[in-house]
Amino acid sequence: MLVRLMYASRAASPVDQEELTAILRQSKQRNPGLGITGVLCFSGGIFIQVLEGGRNAVNQLYARLVGDPRHADVVLLTYEEIAERRFAGWSMGQVNMTRLNPAVLLKYGETATLDPYAVSGRATAALFEELVATAAIMGQA
């Protein structure tokens, strides 16, 4: 059974581009063997990640992330059974924040900032769908 999980967290300490690249590289190496696909967004010290795959694999990875000391304030935004993957082309894609139009953020929230703590999980999921539709995700497989 396939599931899609979306969570948000705050970086427990500052994350630079080199560390973010290392996180993405590790995900791209590990996820295919687990049957997990997804997308990661990082902005202003906040992570938003979508994970798709088998229920057990996704649940185990999420539990590991919750216990990871690099994450604080972990919040489950959405969790659903799915018939098919939305992010099947990405072992772990990354939102290209340079291509993110502030008007898109205003469409789903009160301000033009990426803050999943201030909007519903459904609004954040809709934002991710729009990012895929506008090719604002990079790093396929």
UniProtKB/TrEMBL annotation:
Record GO terms (molecular function): blue light photoreceptor activity; FAD binding
Any one Pfam family match given in the protein's UniProt record, by short name: BLUF
Annotated protein name in UniProt: BLUF domain-containing protein
PROSITE patterns: BLUF
Segments forming domain BLUF: 2-93
SUPFAM superfamilies hit by this protein: Acylphosphatase/BLUF domain-like
Domain of life: Bacteria
SMART domains, per database record: BLUF
